Amino acid sequence: MQKRYHTAENIIFDTIVYLVMFFVLVVCLVPFLYMIAVSFSGMKPLVNNEVFLWPKEFTLESYKTIFTYPNFFHAYGNTFIYAFGGTAIALVMTSLMAYPLSKTFLWGNKFFTKMVVLTMFFSGGMIPTYLIYSSLGIVGTRAAILMPFAINSFNLIILINFFKGLPNEIEEAALIDGLGYFGILRRIVLPLSTAGFATIGLYYAVFFWNDWFNALIYLKGSQYPVMLFLRNIVNGTMAIADGAGSAEKTTMAISLKSAVIITSTVPIITLYPFLQKFFVKGLTIGGVKG
Amino acid sequence: MAKKAALTAEEKAARKRSAKNHFRRYWVLYAMMVLPVIYYIVFKYLPMVGSVLAFRRYRPGMGPFGTEWTLRYWERFLKDPAFWSALRNTVITSVSNLVINFPIPIIFAILLNEVRAKKFKKVVQTISYMPRFISTVVVITILNELLSPSSGMINQLIVACGGEPIYFMNQSAWFRPIYILSETWQFTGWTAIIYLAAITSISPDLFEAAEMDGASRLQQIWYVTIPSILPTVMVMLIMNVGHLLSLGFEKILLMYTPANSGVSDIIDTMVYRVGLAQQNYSYATAIGLFSGIIGLILVTSSNAVSKKLTGESIY
Fold this sequence. Notes:
With 290 residues, chain A is mainly α. Chain A has helices at residues 2-5, 8-39, 43-47, 61-68, 70-101, 109-121, 126-135, 143-146, 153-164, 168-176, 181-192, 194-210, 213-218, 226-234, 246-286. In chain A, 74% of the residues lie in helices and 0% in strands. Chain B has 315 residues and is mainly alpha-helical. At the A-B interface, helix 2, helix 5, helix 6, helix 7 and helix 11 of A face helix 1, helix 4, helix 5, helix 6 and helix 8 of B.
């Protein structure tokens, strides 16, 4: 067996596989490492285009600048509000819908499931949605971000499938012991569904954390999250710093931009590897079968 | 006859009793659904009803459903060259995106599965997911920096090799390649999860038998792996075709510049521009509804094809 494995063809094949994998690693990491290097680099090497993957003339200046910049701090706080508040509301609403829908014996189960599935393939469109939300009076308030995205139908179906896979016997025993369905959901189903909640919780958190477009059309300036703040710096709607000359100004902007990118991306990037084993499972349960 | 009628009456009574029992037993479950169902009606179905605005004239302050019936917006956009150009851009960009970014995750998953060093495999996999978690704003900002004509890494390389710096983000010719490659970067690792799951569910006996028969690694891929994941590939292809019209609108909006608008204006950006920026609500609704209906037709027909060919359906 060992002999057959080490044929010339297989060795070439292995080499190619590893080369491809190294290429993938480099391509995924380099843009990020570059931004880290830029954000920690001093002005001079940046102006002379000397920074590559390692910071030169290490300095924390750009981080100090953005953290003293009140707009950034405010936007960063807003992002936390949307990510935590939005995800919490979404998890409650999604489980309130998913649990009854996982009980196929309920009347109207098919009807309500169809009602959910339809929204995955057809939606009201940007303009009617905007007009309805604005006539509901939520445009210009934080509710415009916290409420409309409380249930994502894909996430709902992942959770329904997850609930369906839980063993029935425990629930039946709890019913006989006199526990109501709310009690069962809270004390039995939720603790058993950590993997399911980790999966969709991550999806919701990533959505709220990264969203900028809904913030752009529904929110006022003081409510903007950090991603919209970054977009406004990039397209020049908002000036971030006053440098002396114009060359210095753009260079400064680059290091500040990278500092904003790093501070706003690191929380979510440090979160996902811990949840990896959950969402891989969640995606394969809910993804195709949907 | 009379007996039968009596029986049905009895049956009716029994059913009524069982309905009563059913609700007495399960009312909590129905109660749980009340809030979410209201949510669906208000935030998802009301905007759908709001699509009638495509056939109605909008007047400010007169409600989101418009005032009187009219077909003028349909006549207008069907004659609008900007609409046809947006439709063409949408189709060209999404078809080329599908052609390139559909096979890449499959190839990546197959090759990743061939990595024998388990730790290394895990590291590659974890890192390949990372771009999926990065906001489009960040992706486009990084691209702007990397591709910047004055300070970007790529252009420095070009200049170092004796070339002229290229204004990547501002030229129509570069718009589609950059969009498609950034999608590759963001979603290859993520999409590969589904194929990797399909590959790991192949029975190891098949590979052992193939190895016994003297199949090389490449032959094992060709004769065992690929045929085994073909159903998954089919389902994914059909789902992708169904969502052909829904491009990464937010990313395209961020990449949109007046200089590349000839190729970067897709239907969604046009709806945004005409509707929210110019406040031409009814007109933009008509365009949006048109593309929504085409999308619905694509999804339902590709799902029907899938049911017939593979027995798998997505709903």
